[in-house]
Amino acid sequence: MSDASRNVHFNLHAPTLLRLESVTFYCLSTFAMKIADRTFIISGGASGLGLATAKDLHSAGAYVSLLDLNADSGSQIVSELGARAKFFETDVSDTESIKAAVDGTIAWVTQTGKEIGGVIAGAGVGLPGLIVDKKNEPISISSIDFVLNINLRGTLDLIRQAVPHMTTNKPAGPDGERGVIIMIASSAAFDGQMGQVAYAASKGAVAALTLPLARDLSRYGIRAVTIAPAMFDSAMTKMMGAKVKESLYKAMEFPKRAGQPDEFARVVRDSVENVMLNGTVLRLDGAMRMPARL
Ligand SMILES: NC(=O)c1ccc[n+]([C@@H]2O[C@H](COP(=O)([O-])OP(=O)(O)OC[C@H]3O[C@@H](n4cnc5c(N)ncnc54)[C@H](O)[C@@H]3O)[C@@H](O)[C@H]2O)c1
């Protein structure tokens, strides 16, 4: 700190300091992107990380449009959340299915007047398979397609179809922002394990497309952020055997536990509100680096 600025700092009278603090507070809240009274499209919103995100954004006053294959869970969540939630049975690997869900969401937005504030592309699957198995059989192309079609193609297709409805938003706040795209990668994008070629390829691609997506959308004031979680409690990780979980815990640094969906949702909320988060991949892993094998 220079002498001049130190003097300025220490010569302030209390009322001036208070005034300065209130100016600072005013500035921070002015720059935050607004969640309330905006609609967020959340794929995979009927379970796990997507559901926690939907509940958190909803509790902050958002309207949530949940896109998922699981219609039973989707309808139940909408009846719990009430009028600010809608469910669309959607298969993100099917372009027409996404189109129907986006069209349905836009029809809802037309009624409510709560424009699209963001997309959270959370639908995802894992299907382990070695590139070549013990019988020297290569991994089936159908299992590679299955994972890539949902995790990568489905993510990009949803974004592609939703974005034209965001570029026409009224610019908001001092930055003139029009919304945010949030994607879910995984630790496997960086340290994929044996048997994860397809999953790691899908998640690595999501991580890689984050910066060019932010660059494409910057002229509209739309941001792109990817979150890369390690092991979080969800339906996906419930299927893991005790032995697999135990060896994952051993690879953890601190804390030695699975992440909780609400801890993930808090990072989504900050990614929505904090306009400086853009074009980046946020690891959410307690310093865990996955070993080659479990
Ligand atoms: N839980 C973890 O440990 C973890 C770690 C890293 C990354 N992830 C990623 O987080 C995302 C959310 O996973 P989760 O852990 O909450 O799992 P989850 O199984 O609880 O939720 C995934 C949701 O996606 C839906 N879905 C699957 N295929 C779909 C399709 N074709 N169309 C529409 N919806 C579909 C499922 O019905 C489910 O509701 C996934 O992309 C996953 O790869 C999870």
Automatic annotation (TrEMBL):
InterPro entries: KR_dom (IPR057326), NAD(P)-bd_dom_sf (IPR036291), Sc_DH/Rdtase_CS (IPR020904), SDR_fam (IPR002347). GO terms for molecular function: oxidoreductase activity. Keywords: NADP, Oxidoreductase. Residues 38-231 form the Ketoreductase domain. Gene3D superfamilies: NAD(P)-binding Rossmann-like Domain. PROSITE patterns: ADH_SHORT (PS00061). Belongs to the short-chain dehydrogenases/reductases (SDR) family. This is NAD(P)-binding protein. It comes from Polyplosphaeria fusca.
